[in-house]
Amino acid sequence: MASSVNDFDLYRPSEEHDMLRDAVRSLAEAKIAPYAAEVDEEARFPQEALDALVANDLHAVHVPESYGGSGADALATVIVIEEVSRVCASSSLIPAVNKLGSLPVILSGSEELKKKYLAPLAKGDAMFSYCLSEPDAGSDAAGMKTKAVRDGDSYVLNGVKRWITNAGVSEYYTVMAVTDPEKRSKGISAFVVEKSDPGVSFGAPEKKLGIKGSPTREVYLDNVRIPADRMIGAEGTGFATAMKTLDHTRITIAAQALGIAQGALDYAKGYVQERKQFGKPIGDFQGVQFMLADMAMKLEAARQLTYAAAARSERVSLGGGKEDLTFFGAAAKCYASDAAMEITTDAVQLLGGYGYTRDYPLERMMRDAKITQIYEGTNQVQRIVMARNLP
């Protein structure tokens, strides 16, 4: 069956997606990139990025229109995160973690809960974090110890959550806690906790290798009493909601990895055309050309896998079948983050001694890339997930 060029859009984003990319790239280069090195050096929250993203409705694009959001699809969300991450990985955690923290409410929350918490998020009045990990419950998240005990019309929460991104800055926290210790994963429930709830406090910011502009802190819950209607979904469904959330949001980590890798490749490409050794640009040497070719090839493979996973995420969100989303989400996150680590390491190599200094952005990109192999499930865990969900 013959088709014209305009009918064959199977493997490319729509015109609207391309326009969004151009808009976000321009904004990121003008308003976020100038502060990226300083944010990393001072390990401070990228307030300039938050202000710019909120002013342009790009801080939480995934929130449905019915709650005041942009209603962006999963691929549009990926493109926003990718383009912000291309200049500053720390800043990309604003839209990424806003989705991670609020998606349990979108997937499983009551209508009242959605109205109460998604509207301020969409307006930019609040950020949302996700509290799953604990000191003794990392990859084995079902082994968590944080408890939520019913007391009349309330639940009382006690425990410690670790590695919480944007903790202390976010107003809202999706917290997983044990409501029935006998049932292991089926005894875990999800709640919305507010920063202002009595008994909520935060540990000192972690001193990290990368993403230094995004605070990572422990969240302490000391007899935190919250209304029972802040439970997300039914009692005992929290762990299932947490895992369903990760099927969708691992793709945003893949997006972050793509952005970091693209930023590194773009910088290295420019550098090798300018840097001269032995009387000509080092980009003229075949050994350098082969490195760039491999970097670009890995990046494009990662992007295609990530965009295919994002399309599946959107179809599932719209009521389609499972579409092997668990496999594709894990595969995209795992492949893209491994590729980002390889590409940023090679980019540093291409700059030689300069790549190793803070005068150039590549050592920061290499440090930032590492975390994408670790959070939202280590890449070893992703391989377990893939093996259990082979399509």
Automatic annotation (TrEMBL):
Pfam families: Acyl-CoA_dh_1, Acyl-CoA_dh_M, Acyl-CoA_dh_N. It comes from the Bacteria. Residues 14-125 form the Acyl-CoA dehydrogenase/oxidase N-terminal domain. Residues 236-390 form the Acyl-CoA dehydrogenase/oxidase C-terminal domain. Keywords: FAD, Flavoprotein, Oxidoreductase. InterPro entries: Acyl-CoA_DH_CS, Acyl-CoA_Oxase/DH_mid-dom, Acyl-CoA_Oxase/DH_mid-dom_sf, AcylCo_DH-like_C, AcylCo_DH/oxidase_C, AcylCoA_DH/ox_N, AcylCoA_DH/ox_N_sf, AcylCoA_DH/oxidase_NM_dom_sf. Its cofactor is FAD. CDD domains: SCAD_SBCAD. Residues 130-224 form the Acyl-CoA oxidase/dehydrogenase middle domain. Belongs to the acyl-CoA dehydrogenase family. This is Acyl-CoA dehydrogenase. The lineage of its organism: Bacteria, Bacillati, Actinomycetota, Actinomycetes, Kitasatosporales.
